[in-house]
Every structure is written in structure tokens, then in C-alpha cells.
Fold this protein.
Amino acid sequence: MQLVYVKNRNQMKIYLSLFSSIYEGNSCVRNSNEYIIKQLFKGKTPFCKGKYIQPVYISEQNQPIAQCIFIHTEKLEGTLQVSFFEAFPEKQVAIDMLINEAIKICREKGLKRVVIGINGHVNYGLGLLVDSFHIPY
């Protein structure tokens, strides 16, 4: 497995492909984040100003299996946010790699905590759904 920092257009396409791969055939799922993620890649929205924003994914046999975007802003003192997280089930090693990278970034930036949220909102995001994710409303 390899950790990839998204730095170019090809890596961005690979990053964006994971969502549809994970949820293929699931009629209950809609990708409502793709537009905002593309805007984060471009870095030109007001949200991006003054923030560390780094998309990453874990690749196994040249296929993405887990991903997130690390975000840090001074508005969340001492906190690195792990946002827009996706991973295939049963890929705990890849998830651990993302968490370990978050810890490494915290050490490099002098941050004291990691918060995992759904999106990059400066109020910590919305959190993670831990059960009943396959049941439509």
C-alpha cells in the first residue's frame, strides 16, 4: 500500500473515482461532495484562503482504497480535521495509514488533536455515521 498526496490532475481523477467504486450499485447513495471537493482541489474559493488543505489517498495495486482531505485552519486552534473520508470496508490497514499521516502532520505543525468530520466545515464538520448507513430515509 502507498500513501499518495494529490498534487496533479491525474491524481485528482483517481481520488474522485473512489467514491463511485465504493458505492457502485447502491441506489441509496448520492455523491453530494464531488463539486466542493473539486473546488478544494482548485484552491480558489474563499473557504480555501488561509487554510492547509491536502487531499490524500491510499493506493493498493494502483487502485485507491481509502482517502480523505486534511484541513487545518487557525480558526480551529491546534486541530487538524480529517474530512471527506471514504474507504472500502475491511481496509483497516489503509485507514490506519491515514490516521498515522494525520498524527504526523499534527506533529509537524505543532497541532494537538485530530477531528474526523464529514466535511471541511470550520465548526468541526458533521461527524461520522456509524450505523444504518445502508438504509434510505
